[in-house]
Amino acid sequence: MASPNSVKILDICEVAAAYDSTKSATETILSPTFFELTYLRFPPSECLCFFKLTDSNPTFFHSVIFPNLKKSLSHALLHFLPIVGSLTWPPESSRPIFVYHPKNDSVSVTLAECNGDFDRLIGNNGIHEAVESHPYAPQFVATETRSPLLVLQVIILYSFLLSIFIMDELWMTRGFEKNYG
After folding, report:
1. Up-side HSE of residue 124: CA atoms within 13 Å toward CB?
2. Distance CA 14, CA 150 (A)
C-alpha cells in the first residue's frame, strides 16, 4: 500500500530555452563571484508553490496546461540562460564555472501526481516539519564535477491543486523564481 504522501512520477522531460539566434546561439561561460563561491557550501535551496486549478480535469491538464507550462518555461529561460546550464568544475581549474551549451543544456521538469494531504501543508494550522515536503522535491542529480542549477517538479493533486517545486543550486536563480515561480 502506498504511503499517504507518495508521489507517482508520470513524466520526466527536458525543457531547453526557446531559440533566439541573437541570445541562445553561443556558449556562455561565467566565473562565479566571491559571494557566489561562498554559497556553494550550502545545500540547494527549495521553493514549493501552490496554485488552485479551477474547472480543470486530468485530460485538460495533460493536453493543454502542462504543454503550455513547458512552452512558457522555455520562453522564460531565454532571458535567464545561465541557469539553463550547469555549475562545472574543470579538473585543471581551482574554481568552478557556470557553463551554458545551447545545444546540450536544458532544465529537468518532472510531472507527478500525489494524493497527499495538501490542506495540512498549505493551511494556517501552525508550523510544519520540513520533512513533510520532501516527497514533493524533484531529483537533484549532481556529480563531483557538474551540477544543474535548476530542476522543477510539477505535482497534480487529486483536488486539482497544482504544486510546483523549484530546487536550485545557487541564489543566482532568485530573479528567475520571482519572474516565473
Report:
1. 0
2. 11
Q: Which three cell numbers stand for residue 2?
A: 502506498
| Residue 40 falls inside a structural domain | yes
Domain count of the fold of the chain: 1
Domain assignment present for residue 133? The answer is yes
Q: Which amino acid is at 21?
A: S
Residue 1 resides in a domain:
no
**Per-residue pLDDT tens listing for the chain (181 residues):** 345 567 889 999 999 988 876 666 678 888 888 877 777 777 777 777 777 777 777 788 888 889 999 999 999 998 888 888 888 888 888 888 888 888 889 999 999 888 766 666 666 666 777 777 777 788 878 888 888 888 888 888 766 566 676 766 654 444 444 444 4
- CATH code for position 107: 3.30.559.10
pTM, rounded to two decimals: 0.79
